[in-house]
């Protein structure tokens, strides 16, 4: 997943820090905006996983820090819910001016509530996702506990949220109270996905029902059980991310328009492995793939290993070659199945190997041919399997030239 670090102005001219996540070829089919949870930030676990999942579907994601939070300019104490909505509209304006208008708005917790309000003002938005979001913004006031009385009396107070101090003013509480969520949600002209866990101890799941009842169709609800409010378990964040990516494509009118997929400019394949774990994102021919290693090798087992992919390449090349040959000969090959396994063996145990020192990689390939084929045809197809391009590449002389790319 490629990314650009950038900033854009809010309506007061203050710069909001942002990250734009892009598919590897930087040619997205659509753009989305992610709004983080109350007092969180653009680098939250949920935001990162959702951006990763959408970028694999060729959807770019702009995630940013609201005014006064994270790396963004401004005074958080002087903001409110309405200010968050305006920040989202500023983000949409920035995308429309420099890239293209956003098609998806996503938000977590109060960020989802803000996305519901902002989406009603954006004609370009085709889909909205609210994750663990309160129906009414006033719900955020419950986080202030005993400090709420002090805010009412003194006009402001310091509030501790997740171990971090924030100054909350009475104007902030008044702004929360003065919202009309039912009216804003009813004005949505986009598809809506509501995601909530029944175990959410911060925003009760009844909020999901209220949002659902206020919205018009098309609308969907997905339970995130057993996740907590912040999706702190990686598997919960990934589950939500993959569902959002799949659901979102349905409403962008892109899934059934393969002609809009950018043609590959060359035969380059890109692989990217980040600092944590061994999960590797692969971009090949305009498609996103994933590789990983088992936990015993330091990975998370989220995808096939590099050797699995190598065997898959050999298997796919074999079956494609067999079908192309059979069609050219007009033979009744209904389907071709290849099963492969590999191991490293001592060279001295290999009867047909010239090199007898060290170890070599040994592949076993089993063919299963379906169709009314004669014995001669089956034997010929067995011979043809040896001629698939990947097979010949593995047997031929391979040279790999590696160079270090200069830093931008």
Q: Could you describe the 3D structure shown?
A:
The chain is an alpha/beta fold and 408 residues long. It folds into three domains: 2-136 and 179-259, Alpha/Beta hydrolase fold, catalytic domain (Rossmann fold), CATH 3.40.50.1820; 142-173, no CATH class; 306-395, GMP Synthetase, Chain A, domain 3, CATH 3.30.300.20. Helices cover 32% and strands 25% of the residues. It contains eleven helices and 15 strands. The chain has helices at residues 45-56, 81-98, 110-119, 147-154, 170-177, 181-186, 206-214, 234-250, 306-329, 375-385, 389-395, and strands spanning 2-9, 15-22, 30-35, 59-64, 104-108, 127-131, 156-161, 164-169, 191-196, 219-223, 269-273, 280-284, 287-291, 335-346, 359-370. The strands form four sheets. An eight-stranded mixed sheet has the order 1-2-4-3-5-6-9-10, with helices on both faces. It has a three-stranded antiparallel sheet with strand order 11-12-13, with no helix packed on it. A two-stranded antiparallel ribbon has the order 7-8. Helix 1 (45-56) crosses helix 8. The protein is elongated, with a radius of gyration of 27 Å. Mean pLDDT is 88; it is low at 255-265.
């Amino acid at each position: 997943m490629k990314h650009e670090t950038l900033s854009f102005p809010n309506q007061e001219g203050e710069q909001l820090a942002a990250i734009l996540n892009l598919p590897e070829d930087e040619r997205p089919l659509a753009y989305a905006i992610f709004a983080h949870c109350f007092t969180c930030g653009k680098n939250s676990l949920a935001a990162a996983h959702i951006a990763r999942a959408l970028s694999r579907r060729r959807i770019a994601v702009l995630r940013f820090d609201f005014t006064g939070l994270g790396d963004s300019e401004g005074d958080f104490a002087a903001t409110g819910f309405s200010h968050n909505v305006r920040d989202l509209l500023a983000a949409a304006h920035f995308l429309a001016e420099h890239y293209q208008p956003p098609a998806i708005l996503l938000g977590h917790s109060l960020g989802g509530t803000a996305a519901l309000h902002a989406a009603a003002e954006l004609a370009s938005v085709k889909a909205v996702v609210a994750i663990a979001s309160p129906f009414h913004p006033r719900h955020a006031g419950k986080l202030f506990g005993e400090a709420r009385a002090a805010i009412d009396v003194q006009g402001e107070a310091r509030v501790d949220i997740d171990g971090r101090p924030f100054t909350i003013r009475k104007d902030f509480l008044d702004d929360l109270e003065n919202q009309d969520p039912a009216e804003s949600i009813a004005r949505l002209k986009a598809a809506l996905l509501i995601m909530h866990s029944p175990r959410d101890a911060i925003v009760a799941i009844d909020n999901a029902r209220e949002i659902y009842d206020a919205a018009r169709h098309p609308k969907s609800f997905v339970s995130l059980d057993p996740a907590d409010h912040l999706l702190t378990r990686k598997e919960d964040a990934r589950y939500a991310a993959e569902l959002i990516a799949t659901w979102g494509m349905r409403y962008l009118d892109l899934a059934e328009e393969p002609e809009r997929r950018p043609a590959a400019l060359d035969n380059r394949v890109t692989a990217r492995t980040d600092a944590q774990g061994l999960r590797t994102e692969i971009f090949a021919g305009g498609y996103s793939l994933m590789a990983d290693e088992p936990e015993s090798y330091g990975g998370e087992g989220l995808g096939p290993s590099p050797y699995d992919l190598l065997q898959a390449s050999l298997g796919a090349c074999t079956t494609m070659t067999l079908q192309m040959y059979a069609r050219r000969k007009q033979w009744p090959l209904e389907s071709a199945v290849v099963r492969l396994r590999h191991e490293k063996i001592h060279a001295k145990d290999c009867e047909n190997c010239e090199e007898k020192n060290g170890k070599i990689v040994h592949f076993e390939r089993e063919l299963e041919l379906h169709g009314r084929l004669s014995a001669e045809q089956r034997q010929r197809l067995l011979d043809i399997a040896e001629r698939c391009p990947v097979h010949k590449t593995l047997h031929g002389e391979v040279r790999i030239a590696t160079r270090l790319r200069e830093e931008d």
